[in-house]
Amino acid sequence: MLILFLIYIRHLFSKIRARIENLQSLSYIDDVTLYIEGKSIDKNVKKLKKITKIAFIWVNENAVQFDNSKFELIYFKSHKVTFNQTIMLFNDTVIKSKICIWWLKVWLNWKLNFKMHMQMKIITVIKMLHSLFKLMNSEWKLNARSEKQLYLACITIISDYDIEIWWNNQKNHIIKFCKLQSAALWKILKVFWTLLIKVMQIKIEISSVKVWLNQKCKNYAIKIVKLLKKYSTRNCNCNSYTLVTSI
What we know:
Blueprint: H1 2-19, E1 23-28, E2 31-37, H2 41-61, E3 72-76, E4 86-88, E5 94-98, E6 100-103, E7 106-109, H3 115-136, H4 144-154, H5 156-159, H6 163-166, H7 171-189, H8 197-204, H9 209-226, E8 242-246
Helix pairs in contact: 3-4, 3-7, 4-7, 7-8
């Protein structure tokens, strides 16, 4: 059904691009994002208002309805700028600007430093780690090998998700992840808290957090290099000034 929906609305984007300059779009299934690049906030907002007008005229003519709750507005910039603009849709819905949005399971703040995303990721990992500890303390008495498999399957899949877009050897992030890994290894090996983390990593055959994250990013870079030049992933470039509205 989603594929049919995308085929049905494909002409909408070509119609918008034909009338709006510097318009780019990103989409995944039914999560569509339109963004404008430019240093003038007023001009960018004016273009976005024009985009919404074109979109709503088209949906009225083609029996399509947007979900108003999914409309979001954010202004990305490299320095702090007051942005209190709003956009009034044709159905009288007001879109207020936000300092952080959640898109494709990634938290994006106005500075694109992924600070909010990392905070939420750490909270999720801690919750999952506590659930894993309860399972380890159960009467089943899992061995170290089984507990290691649970750790890799339940914890690393959360901590490693989308690291390619935010990991850049940040010390404050690595410290938090190292503490979480240490807590998991102490529980798996059932050793004293005084045992060095490097000793536990060698004993259980798990790489350090920094080595693991760097390896994941290198593997992703190799995959990108193998892609053809026509793919947008190879040519992706993030500017400091971007306005985004999601449909």
